[in-house]
Amino acid sequence: MTTIVFENVWKEYDDRVVLERVNLALDDHEFLVIIGPSGVGKTTLLRMLLSQELPTRGRILIDGEPIAAEPTADRGVVFQRYSVFPHKTVLGNVMMGPQWAGAPVLGRFFGARRRALEERAMALLTRVGLAEHAEKYPAQLSGGMQQRLALAQALIMKPKVLLLDEPFGALDPGTRKSMHELVGELWEENRMTIVMVTHDLPEAFLLGTRVIAVDKPRKDPQAPERFGATIVSDFEAKCRSVRESRVFEAEREKARLALIGGHSVPVDASPVPALMKD
Amino acid sequence: MRRMINYAPRPGVRLILAALPFVLMIAAYMLASNARLAVEPADKLMPSFASFWATILRMATTIDVATKQYLLWWDTWLSLWRLFVGLGISALLGLVLGIVVGFIPYLRSTFEPFFAAFSLIPPLAVLPILFILFGLGEASKIVLIVFGIAPFIIRDVMLRVAAIPTEQIVKAQTLGASTWQMITGVVLPQVMPRLIDSVRLSLGAAWLFVIAAEAITAEGGLGYRIFLVRRYLAMDVILPYVAWITLLAFLMDYALRRIGAAAYPWDKIKAA
Fold it and tell me: Which of A56, A58, A73, A93 to pair with A127, CA 20 to 30 A apart?
């Protein structure tokens, strides 16, 4: 269960009000998409949820607890660019998070622990379709493949919330479509909450279960900095029944795969269980 | 007729073209030297290549009476030792201080302006201070090199640290990395190729300081020898020594480049 609450959140830089009176309550396993004109503060909202920036007023709660004042492992992120480490191979990138968590000084696993992690990372890479590129460096991958890698790298930490900051903005339409499918599936499989910022409306309504529009409701022509943006519209993009039936289908598919796996091949032959969250 | 920039030489031609300036320079020297020697066989300003060879052979294979050493190798050893110790200390200082100061905001605010001011002090101007403080021995020479190039390397490493995208640092934090883990796992590996380049660029300055320090006071060294034999107009020693220093500098630069490419293959991929 993961719930997110924004309690009267404001963000100001000196005299400039960027966001004002942001109130939002988000249920478990939502796919929230934030839309709005450029420069209005969508990304600021996401950064505050990530603790990359701190709200000037108000507070943000995850599961009833105020979020830490710095980025932590319970909130994963994929940016539009630069989300992967150029000096690590694809496999090395995915293995970084668990190694940092498990080896405070060296940041590196050895022996059996390393092999176990490698197996987990490879399962995840197979899931996002990068298994055959495991030994390449990010610079050798296309933009879409780099974003898949960034997703896998974030998912191996099993974050409660996954934050996506215009993750498909720099991709060509074909790649973008396949990324939509992948993200939708990963969201179902991992039963986590996703918050995504985009300026692409069809994308927002295709993926989101909830779509909020951020804009300035009040404008002072003499002092455009005087008022900030807030949530001006709030759509439930997919009604409950549709979502419930999709969740049901996903569960059934999972059960089917497990059944097939149990009879013919070892269970770990299917990459899906590796992604399941507790 | 295409534009001039659209004509590129073939690989074989490129090699010949690259060799051409060297060949021309040597040929010009030989012609001028021959012309002078024809007039005055004892000319000291432009000795022939034969006398270069004889001098180098003598310095490399016979023991000098005064120092009981093979002079060429003795000088080379002394200079390289000073150079390597100075460069090594500078690189280490640059790496540690550059990363720590570049990465931690409080240290950055405290020391960045200081380093910026410090790096503007002309090292040769403080050489007398170093001689007074550290004596005329090896210590003052090493400190001069460190004084001369460490601030440059520190600032270069700091710039590289600052150039790492914020996204990467935030991402590392969402993967649970501590400050130490970010330094060792994200910043250090990405700074290392730049450190190697930085040391390569410092090679020229490092040689300058070694030779300057040796010129003033030393018991031996390539720079010391050049300045010593200057009194006798011994161009047959000076010119081969200059060529030898150039060759050593080139080999060091080449070795560093190869080490960088072999150790950090991901750094060169960007071009593709």
Answer: A73
B91, B14: one domain: no
- Give the alpha-carbon dihedral of A89, A143, A78, A253, to 10 degrees: -90
Using a CB-CB cut-off of 8 Å, the residues of chain A touching B263 are none
Give the domain CATH number at B151: 1.10.3720.10
Rounded CA-CA distance A151/A167 in Å is 10
Same domain, B97 and B220: yes
Residue A68 token pair: 């830490």
Number of domains into which chain B is organized: 2
ipTM of the complex, rounded to two decimals: 0.81
Question: pLDDT value at position A271?
Answer: 45
B73/B57 Cα distance (integer angstroms): 11
Contact B174 A154 (CB under 8 A): yes
Min Cα separation B153/chain A (Å): 21
Q: Nearest chain A Cα to B163, which residue?
A: A82
**Does B138 lie in the same domain as B114?**
yes
CB A230 within 8 A of CB A22: yes
pLDDT band at residue A269 using 50, 70 and 90 as cut-offs = very low
Residues in chain B whose Cβ is within 8 Å of chain A = 165-168, 170-178, 180-181, 184-186, 189-190, 264-267, 269-270, 272
pLDDT per residue over B64-109, tens digit each? Answer: 887 788 888 999 999 999 999 999 999 999 999 999 999 999 999 9
Among A79, A80, A87, most B C-beta atoms within 10 A, so best to mutate, is A87
What values do phi and psi take at B168, rounded to 5? -65, -40
B94 and B226 share one domain: yes
**Owning domain of residue B162:** 56-264
Asked whether the beta carbons of A122 and A149 are under 8 A apart, the reply is: no
B155 and B182 housed in the same domain = yes
Q: Would residue B73 count as lying in a domain?
A: yes
- B226 and B169 fall within a common domain: yes
Do the beta carbons of residue A5 and residue A65 sit within 8 Å?
no
Which residues of chain A make contact with B160, given a CB cutoff of 8 A?
none
Specify whether B169 is located in the same domain as B41.
no
Please give the pLDDT value at position B40.
86
- Kindly state whether residues B217 and B249 are assigned to the same domain: yes
Average of per-residue pLDDT values in chain B: 90
Whole-structure pTM value: 0.81
